[in-house]
Design a protein that fits this description.
The complex is a heterodimer.
Chain A lengths: L2 H14 L7 H31 L4 H8 L4 H14 L7 H10 L4 H13 L2 H11 L1 H24 L26 H36 L2 H9 L5 H9 L6 H13 L4 H13 L2 H7 L5 H25 L1
Helix pairs in contact in A: 1-2, 2-7, 2-9, 4-6, 4-8, 6-8, 6-13, 7-8, 7-12, 8-15, 9-12, 11-13, 12-13, 13-15
Chain B lengths: L1 E5 L4 H17 L4 E5 L2 H6 L7 E4 L2 E5 L5 H8 L1
Parallel strand pairs in B: 1-2
Antiparallel strand pairs in B: 1-3, 3-4
Helix pairs in contact in B: 1-3
The chains are: A mainly alpha, B alpha+beta.
Chain lengths: 319, 76
Amino acid sequence: MFDWWERIVDALVVDLFGMDKTSQAGGAIHFFIYDTIKIYMLLVLIIFAVSFLRTYFNTEKVRVYLQGKSEFTGNILAALFGIITPFCSCSAIPLFLGFMQARIPLGITFSFLISSPMNNEIAIALLFGLFGWKITALYIGFGLLVAIIGGFVVGRLGMEKYVLIPVVPMSGDLEDVEIKLTMKKRVKESWNYTMDILQKIYLYVLIGVGIGAFIHGYIPTEFIVKYAGSNTWYSVPLAVILGVPMYSNAAGVMPLIEVLTSKGMLLGTALSFMMAITALSLPEAMILKRILHVKLIATFFGIVAVGIMGVGYLFNALL
Amino acid sequence: MKIEVLGTGCSKCQALTEATKKAVAQKGIFAQIEKVEDIMKIMEYGVTSTPALVVDGKVLSSGKLLSVDEIVTLLG
């Protein structure tokens, strides 16, 4: 897909700069130019596509679709909607209470709350750009699984009493919400959104790929294999713990994970790390603390963390 | 005209309030702008994503930080 671009960078580095592609400096520079531009192109493409699709959905619509769904079907649908619905953690409170108001079970709401940030457009675009479609599909597939099972388990624990704000369930069914937008407006809105996101993350991507390029060219593989590649029991939980505080920097961390993986870090550990970055967000926990008891938030984080680690161990064992 | 901006205090909600003020000034209309932060009141409008823009009790947009121009168009 990007052969043409690789040829241009080859020509640039070898012919114009007169550098050897296999040398340390040449390799690092080639990697940096090739990767940053490729990632920016993919970011624009994928974020635009996802946000265009999302102009057809919103959380109000999802609420209508999820109302009255049975437990397991509801969990699956909620997780799937998490991919295509725009959601920002600052809306976590109205979303949570709004779902309860519509008598949507707690477990189904949590399936959505786990899936939505995990399958955010930035993570998907970066994964696709850095790792290709296979790893992206694995990430989304297992992310959905964690969201479905995680939500199901939370639902089974009967923790409704830990919601601190009394919600009066509405009687009757919701009416479908219509989203009236012309095609031109959808395109314009998605484009503006894409540029907005890009503006927020381009620097992180640049720094991430920059450090990645340095590792790529200068740090020997044995060094990384020794610290991140070993299949010791603690590498997966360690990756999850390290991933939690990195939420806002997903754009900068993903390029690093790619380099670490190509230099010997195990894929399962890498997947756990990425999922922990997107799914276990401290800011979201702080927002939810205003309406949920700490016990419920801790349970939610605990279950997701266990699920993510399960994915990591599974992949380290299989691959 | 009564305009309400619904939001639980996030930065986007603040930005939407500012944009709404500018839009109203640009149109030169008389409107009362109120920022609603009470979650129970927000729920009453059936909104599940913030910030939301409500004009005379009708939800015109939710989950979006609208630009000044967009608000001007929405206000009609």
